[in-house]
Amino acid sequence: MMEFKASIFTVAVLTIVLSSPAFAQKHKSPPAPATPILPPSPAPAPGPHHVDLADLLSVAGPFHTFLEYLQKTDVLGTFQNQANSTKEGITIFVPKDSAFAALKETTFANLTKDQLKSLILYHALPKFYSLAEFNKLSSQNPVPTFAGSQYTLNLTDNMGSIHVKSMWSNPKISSSVLSTYPVAVYEVDKVLLPMQIFKSEPPLAPAPAPAPDAKESDVAPSPRSTKSASAKAKDEEKNSSYQAGVGIVNYLIIAVSSGLMMLLW
């Protein structure tokens, strides 16, 4: 009986101790660590902008001759792959149709297939350059082109006027056709002519004959002046004969009149 009472007392004491605030504070479980709040992940960077060079050059300006050479030499595929499958991008200097027309027709007709391909490759840099970057790029002259390390250009930026100098030409960038990574296309007013292909300066096409000035002799003659010289001579002869005939008739009339007067007297 005494053991039973002792057990009850022990349970009561333990209940009081365990339920006391001091015991609960002392043996309180540590708080669970807070879940960290992570910043939102950045949106993925947009991929390179795809540019169809054939479509661009066919509608952007008078670049039909250059586009024909791109397709003829299969360089179009090389440029297209560089534009859309590399991180470097591409910069292309495109001569206008008038730039090709300014050179003699035999300038390109006498080139071999490899020379013509190198000439077209010479018009591009294997990296994207905006207009603002040409100032820095000019300090790295000479700059290698797509045609190879021996085919170089010298770029100069003079107060915003950018020139692309080859051995036999120094064209100016006249406008920006496209300047959005990874493709930069700039219009130039002359064909780039490297010394590796042209040992001397290619001849220019003959200048077109000037239009004749409008003179009095070029003005359409009036109907009266359309007669030939012989017709005019005949007219003058007829007029002289007529005047002579009139003179004879007048003389006869005067003579007859004088005779009648004498008879009357």
UniProtKB/TrEMBL annotation:
The chain crosses the membrane at residues 242-264. It is a lipid-anchor; GPI-anchor. The keyword Mitochondrion does not apply. Residues 50-192 form the FAS1 domain. Residues 204-238 are annotated as: Disordered. GO terms for biological process: plant-type secondary cell wall biogenesis. It is found in: Cell membrane. Residues 1-24 form the signal peptide. It comes from the Eukaryota. May be a cell surface adhesion protein. This is FAS1 domain-containing protein. It comes from Eleusine coracana subsp. coracana.
